[in-house]
Amino acid sequence: MFRLRRTVVLPLLIALTVALIITSLLVGGYDITLANLFTDPDAREMFFISRIPRTLALIFAAVAMSVCGVIMQAITQNKFVEPTTVGSSQWAGLGILVMLILAPNAAPMPRMIVASVFAFIGTMLFMFVLRRIPLRSSMVVPLVGIMLGAVVGAITTFIAGQFNLLQSMSSWASGGFSGIVRGFYEPLWATVIVAILAFFLANRFTVAGLGRDLATNIGLNYERTVLIGILMVALATGVTSVVVGFIPFLGLVVPNIVSMLLGDDLRRNLPWVAVVGICFLLACDLIGRVIVAPMEIPASVILGFIGAAVFIGLVLRQQRRVGA
Fold it and tell me: In angstroms, rounded to a whole number, what is the distance separating the alpha carbons of residues 306 and 283?
């Protein structure tokens, strides 16, 4: 069965992803076709200024959030966590708000640094709380993160209201890709570095996922591995949050789908996690572009709707497995 899945499903998945990338490059408000790319200078300019940056931003953001989900699930030993369910993204949003208040004209790099620092603090706080409460159910872990994220989100909304920045934060929370153009998406290349590091450190995260005692007995420096994982998640979340905004559930849905298809070998799964994540986010973005054209629904809205349904499905599946 496993060999059948690899030989049939995965090539189809790659073909689907390539088709979605090509579609993403050609679909939009401005009519661009393969033919007029060579004959129409305006279409060619629009292609290089908007379509390629938007598609690359979708690819990088998808890889970043999907890989972050894998790392968080490994170091917490829980399938229901990812940056938006542990509060990392909400903390990054608070960091973005702080920069809007203190340095509204700051360049993207300082905003990414501050957002990453806030995401790191939030993730460390989640891990601190997690180690001090009894965990009788796997559902307690994401519930802790969701509650912490909700508190930070409420504080962010309150502060934004005091400084008349609610509209700016609402735009950030929508997580749209319509404003991505050349010169704006390039910081997302940093997330590629995080993804490559995750691949080379995958075996360490796998061992860390066995628990502190067992990992330490095997010879792994457990605390250092967890800290590296949190730093990688914070960096990818901070950069992604500043450039494209809030992307919910991607890091939860994608690793679980890949795990169901291929098993739990983290290193082997990571390339497929990236491919499925790209496929998933591109599909959500394209749905948002075409169903109300020429207007757009942000990809995060479509993703949130689908992700919430998948999240509920995973919870029900977990309950059936526990009850069996």
Answer: 11
Angle made by CA atoms 126, 132, 138, in degrees to the nearest 5:
70
**Mean pLDDT per 10-residue interval, the chain, length 324 residues:** 62 89 87 81 88 93 92 88 87 92 88 93 90 72 86 92 86 76 85 91 89 87 92 92 85 86 82 91 90 82 82 73 61
**Could you tell me which of 78, 3, 6 has the C-alpha nearest to residue 275?**
6
Yes or no: say if 242 and 111 are a contact pair by the CB < 8 Å rule: yes
Among candidate residues 9, 82, 61, 255, the one with its CA nearest the CA of residue 177: 61
**CA separation, residue 112 to residues 95, 119, 195 (Å):** 9, 10, 18
DSSP conformation letters of 39-63: H-HHHHHHIIIIIHHHHHHHHHHHH
Task: Using alpha carbons only, give the angle 43, 44, 48 rounded to the nearest 5 degrees.
Answer: 115
Identify the pLDDT of residue 321.
66
pLDDT value at position 135? Answer: 64
CB 254 within 8 A of CB 66: yes
Q: Please say whether the beta carbons of 70 and 135 come within 8 A.
A: no
**Residues 149/86, Cβ–Cβ less than 8 Å:** yes
Q: What is the C-alpha separation between 129 and 152, in angstroms, rounded?
A: 15
Q: Give 58's contacts (C-beta < 8 A, 6+ positions apart).
A: 24, 177, 278, 281, 282, 285, 299
- Helix (H) or strand (E) segment spanning residue 116: helix 108-130
Write down the pLDDT at residue 266: 83
Rounded-to-integer distance, Cα 102 and Cα 45, Å: 36
C-alpha 286/C-alpha 215 separation (Å) is 43
Q: State phi, psi for 259 to the nearest 5 degrees.
A: -65, -40
Kindly list the distances between the CA atom of residue 132 and the CA atoms of 128, 144, 151, 167, 264, in Å, as whole numbers in the listed order: 7, 11, 19, 37, 27
Q: What gap in Å lies between CA 142 and CA 248, rounded to an integer?
A: 13
